[in-house]
Amino acid sequence: MGNQFSDLGLAAMINSVKNELLSVTPDDTDSTPVFGVTEITVEVNFTVTADIHGGIDLKVVQLGSRIEDQRVHKAVITLTPLLSTEQILEEAAKMSPDMLSTIAKSSTKAILKGEKDQLPVVPRT
To answer: pTM for this one?
Structure first.
């Protein structure tokens, strides 16, 4: 590959990550959430170009592009939700009262592996 750049700007790349997180996998038969996303770290290689009017343009480097190292910058971007896990669960409960119960059952099933009679018995106190 030659000196090709993705037309994907840094803001568009972040928006793509957001859209991917919002999407539901089409072949997923059970879309009940099991895991929450508390943080996403993305390492991005990008180039910076400036124009004569003082504007700058950030372009994400396309995988496999051959770019002079001194022209490529690297940034590690951490994306975190605006709401806490507790706030998200509160909103989920408001949207559907049965949702928390469904999430709890699915999470327990996903995390605890083994046959039903092999699961650990936790004494109640």
So the answer is: 0.57
